[in-house]
Prior knowledge:
Layout: H1 9-21, H2 24-27, E1 36-39, H3 47-53, E2 59-63, H4 66-78, E3 84-88, E4 100-106, H5 115-125, E5 126-137, H6 150-156, E6 162-165, E7 169-175
Parallel strand pairs: 1-2, 1-4, 2-3, 4-5
Antiparallel strand pairs: 5-7, 6-7
S-adenosylmethionine binds near residues 41, 65, 107 and 111.
Amino acid sequence: MIEDRRINPILLDNFIIKYIDNPKSIFKLVKSNMNVLDHGSGPGNYTLIFSKLAKDGTVYAIDSDPKQVDILNYKIKKYNIKNVKTFVSRDLSVIEDNSIDFLFSKDVLCCTTLHEELVMDIKRVLRPGGIAYVSIKNNFIKNDPRNISYKKLYSLFDNPKHKYNNLIGSWLFYRKPVI
Ligand SMILES: C[S@@+](CC[C@H](N)C(=O)[O-])C[C@H]1O[C@@H](n2cnc3c(N)ncnc32)[C@H](O)[C@@H]1O
């Protein structure tokens, strides 16, 4: 387990989220008893917020980079957080079908070539009626195989509930149909 000694990680996270990302509308969707998946959690900037919002549920944090998961595990231990489970994985196979109430995939599909596979996995793990927030950053590097356009992102989600794009990136909300 590694320690992040440069700056108090919680203060840094709060600064980034409050002043740069400002995702208040997303946080409103998370209720106390929900199971939340932070897909591509990185060092857990959002995971820790979800752990407070879903205090009676479970927050799953998955990242393909073991170093990011180590930093998150350090924070979980330091702040004695009990409702977060972390995994190092490039896919969502550790998560059961139809088990997630809210899925958060922020700027992950633009860091991988596994676009179709991950979107299938996102739809699989959401419970019917569950909601996913998925965003990508615009990639200005030509011929990057990870690059995914906003049109492609939208097309992978049949009938997204809301979709947006601006100069920096694109994002959508997807609600899994209730059959
Ligand atoms: C730009 S960072 C975003 C981190 C976090 N979502 C945030 O907004 O603070 C992208 C993260 O996705 C992770 N990642 C890339 N491909 C992945 C995959 N196939 N499965 C899980 N995580 C992945 C990277 O390791 C990295 O931590």
